[in-house]
Amino acid sequence: MNIRSLALAPALVLGLAFPALAEKIPLNELSRYLNRLTTATAEFTQVNPDGSISTGTVYIQRPGRVRFEYNNDNTLVMASGGNVAVFDPKSGGPQQYPLSQTPLSIILDANVNLGRANMVTAHTESKNATVVTAQDPQNPQYGNIQMVFTPGPTQLRQWVVTDDSGQKTTVILGEMREGGSIPASKFSINNEMSRRN
């Protein structure tokens, strides 16, 4: 499995039952929603590029921090301090690379602006959800992220990350608990390295 996809992998469109006909949510409203989202926790289901399915809990602290804890598995993916670290029991120490080289950086950016030129490549309404595909306008070669939002109130429900090699990872979020505080230690790559050594 491509570890970069595993970490930052989003989104199968589920046949979720939503209220009848919704207009697509404007990009400026989606940017406002993401910028207001400071902390969130949710259970997730991940569909990996090879078709296997993983589950776990994701912790988000914007800007720049995320932690994916996997159930029944000692794998852990964290982003903090501008880096992503993938702790995979099979590969020893963590694999690390810059967060800016992953499409997930779009959600975690300090100032999300989906209205930037060449950032959004698709913006549609499907099954009463708004689907937005975005990329880093300066570095489209890093791949893209397809985000699915539902209205009333606006909420991020899933994402699909297509990485730089074209592999897709989908993350489907359960009920998102927004707000509250998450200990900084949850996002410390160094703490996790010390704990595992």
Automatic annotation (TrEMBL):
SUPFAM superfamilies in the cross-refs: Prokaryotic lipoproteins and lipoprotein localization factors (SSF89392)
UniProt keyword list: Lipoprotein, Signal
Entry-linked CDD domains: LolA (cd16325)
Signal peptide: 1-22
Pfam name, any one: LolA
Protein name per its UniProtKB record: Outer membrane lipoprotein carrier protein LolA
Species of origin: Paracoccus angustae
